[in-house]
Specification:
By secondary structure, the protein is α+β, with helices and mostly antiparallel strands. The chain contains 14 helices and 13 strands. The structure holds zinc ion.
């Protein structure tokens, strides 16, 4: 992709990067792109709503009524709704709440005029007169978000309001309405604008309590977008080799270290190898019958660990090492000295193909590194729960995967199993995660829906 100019495009559903800048729209639609994953909490914030009471009232009575609501309605502030404006002028309300469009035709609000039922037809002309006056003085009224509807019934709230000016007998008409609002704070200015138009005036506080800060996502995408396709295609190649040589299913990964100058280097390439050992001709040293856990990510992480040992201790004394550095450079490396052969053969955390070997042989890991901190992992498919947790535990900084695996994947928080393991408040490590859509003709291998990648 290096010779093609890239550009980024934003959408309501999150950032989206197109890698190529072709002239025709049809070409652009088929270009590879990255979409940052929504965290589980962000997905929840998008979906969860709550019903609240609102009322229109004169500006001069607004604060008094708010104080009465806070004092007289227990638990009126039990739900944190600080992302919603407490008061809103009519012209800031969404269309369905606007005076002209909010009569009985509204489908999402309940309309109640508490005063008219008790005064009967005698006061109808007076009511009409008041309504006219109210319409003419709309600029002098506000709409108050009172509290969640499950805190107080409509009857009790009406009764409370009708005891207070300006709603007391023959006063300002009381119109309580039940509306739906988002329960949790928006995570972007676009989301706040959308909710303002759809529900109620909503505030965006330039932070994201449910996921990575937008500026962090933007900065990271800037770093990875030029080379993401290159690494994804290499992972695809590793997957194809693994599959064609019957080591495993058609899944692969590439692990990259990004140096301080942002230059990135490939530190590990691994294909799936869960079938390796099932046939004697594949791995003659193996005494096992195949390890179902030899997924690409697990193997890649294992290779990084071996390289860390090699980089950190090039002259490991042979009498004091579980892993001999020289032994690791022998090709092919089927086991590690002093490690039971069956363990090495079972974990398969050493290269099986030339492609894997080439990356493994490079001593390009930064010295004194720790686990997979600051490393990026590019995967052909969404990792399974085991690999997702391994990626979290290994402390990767970024994960980019190709095909979603709704029945087995552990990263997506907005669909499928919905675990969203890359960013959860109860876990002590978080990373950024993107879904990569390949260009036409370069898609990842199609796997059975319930395959654990
Ligand atoms: Zn896995």
């Amino acid at each position: 992709m290096g010779e093609r100019r890239g550009r980024s495009v934003s959408s309501d559903t999150g950032s989206s990067i197109y890698f190529s800048c072709d002239e025709e729209l049809s070409d652009e639609m088929s270009a590879p792109r990255l979409n940052v994953l929504k965290t589980k909490a962000e997905s929840r914030a998008l979906a969860e709503t709550i019903k609240v009471w609102i009322v229109e009232l004169p500006v001069k009575a607004a604060n008094d009524i708010l104080i009465i609501c806070k004092d007289q309605i227990p638990d009126s502030d039990s739900v944190d709704l600080q992302h919603l404006r407490r008061f809103a002028k009519a012209n800031l309300l969404p269309p369905y709440l606007q005076p002209s469009g909010s009569r009985a035709s509204s489908t999402d609000s309940r309309y109640s005029t508490a005063s008219s039922s008790s005064t009967g037809t005698k006061s109808s002309s007076r009511s009409r007169s008041r309504m006219r006056k109210r319409r003419n003085s709309a600029a002098s009224t506000l709409h108050l978000l009172i509290c969640p509807t499950d805190v107080i019934s409509q009857a009790d709230l009406s009764s409370l309001m009708m005891k207070q000016p300006p709603f007391a007998q023959d006063g300002f008409p009381l119109r309580l309405r039940e509306i739906t609002v988002p329960l949790l704070a928006p995570t972007s200015v676009e989301q706040a604008q959308q909710w303002t138009a759809q529900y109620w005036p909503t505030l965006y506080r330039k932070t994201n309590p449910f996921g990575p800060h937008p500026s962090l996502v933007a900065r990271s995408e800037e770093e990875i977008r030029d080379e993401a396709s290159k690494y994804m295609m290499l992972a695809r190649q590793a997957a194809a080799e693994s599959s064609s040589r019957q080591f495993g299913i058609g899944a692969g990964c590439v692990i990259v270290e990004r140096k301080a100058d942002r230059h990135a280097e490939i530190v590990a390439v691994a294909g799936d190898a869960r079938l390796s050992g099932l046939g004697d001709s594949i791995n003659p040293l193996s005494q096992c019958s195949g390890n179902i856990a030899c997924h690409a990510a697990m193997r890649g992480i294992g290779m990084v660990a071996r390289k860390r040992v090699r980089v950190a201790s090039p002259k490991t004394p042979k009498d004091n090492a579980d892993i001999d550095a020289d032994e690791l450079l022998v090709k092919p490396v089927h086991h590690v000295k002093d490690t039971p052969e069956s363990v090495s053969a079972s974990l398969l955390d050493y290269p099986l193909t030339d492609l894997e070997q080439e990356a493994f042989d490079q001593d390009n890991l930064i010295a004194n590194g720790y686990l997979c901190v600051d490393l990026e992992i590019y995967m052909t498919h969404e990792p399974c729960l085991m690999c997702s947790m391994a990626i979290v535990h290994s402390r990767f900084s970024r994960c980019i995967f190709g095909t979603r695996m709704p029945s087995s994947g552990g990263m997506a928080g907005d669909s499928g199993l919905g675990y969203g393991l890359f960013w959860r408040s109860e876990l002590n490590w978080k990373l950024l995660c993107w879904e990569y859509t390949a260009s036409k003709g370069q898609e990842m291998a199609v796997l059975k829906e319930d395959t654990q990648v």
